[in-house]
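Key result, reporting period 2: structure in, sequence out.
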């Protein structure tokens, strides 16, 4: 009877170890970004290589930026450009990108560590006193981010990303959107 228990326990132990090894080897956490026009997944692995390996912006990163061009367009800074503090961001975005005339901008290093957070604000048209952010049309925005320039570690921390987040007061994930612009930190 003792031998049978040992054999059964050994079988369960082997099965548990086998399942654990298979999960460890086969499990990969992925986030899929979708092209909202075609409902097809977009490969974003190029963002990591563009942000870490080189200051050049790959075609795939440019494609991801162009996917958002119907919602937000950043004029400054351009993707792959060298930035310093304080950084002024400018562009145009649909009024639906804002809430109460602002939306968050976040600066992260190559590893995703948040270096600074700020807000971009609606800039009224000086030629139109009735201009408002409460529209579905494009409106101007501008914002400033103050940050400490990260020190270089193994040659990679000079890369980073500026994230332009759609303001989502509802908190519902289906209303989330963001545009990520890869940058290089200057001195």
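The corresponding designed sequence is given below.
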């Amino acid at each position: 009877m003792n031998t049978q228990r040992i054999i059964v326990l050994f079988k369960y132990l082997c099965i548990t170890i086998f399942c654990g090894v298979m999960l460890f080897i086969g499990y990969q956490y992925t986030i899929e970004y979708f092209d909202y026009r075609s409902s097809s997944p977009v490969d974003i692995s190029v963002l990591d290589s563009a942000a870490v390996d080189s200051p050049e912006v790959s075609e795939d990163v440019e494609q991801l930026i162009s996917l958002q061009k119907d919602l937000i367009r950043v004029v400054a800074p351009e993707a792959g450009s060298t930035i310093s503090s304080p950084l002024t961001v400018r562009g145009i975005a649909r009024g639906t990108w804002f809430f109460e005339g602002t939306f968050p901008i976040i600066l992260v290093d190559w590893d995703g560590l948040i270096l600074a957070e700020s807000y971009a604000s609606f800039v009224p048209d000086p030629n139109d006193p009735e201009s408002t952010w409460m529209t579905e049309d494009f409106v101007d925005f501008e914002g400033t981010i103050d940050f400490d320039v990260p020190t270089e570690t193994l040659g990679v921390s000079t890369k980073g990303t500026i994230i332009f987040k759609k303001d989502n007061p509802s908190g519902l994930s289906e209303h989330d959107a963001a545009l990520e612009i890869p940058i290089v930190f200057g001195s």
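The chain is about 20% helix and 35% strand. The beta strands are 33-35, 40-42, 72-76, 82-83, 87-94, 102-109, 114-123, 138-145, 159-165, 178-185. This case is discussed further under Risks and Mitigation.
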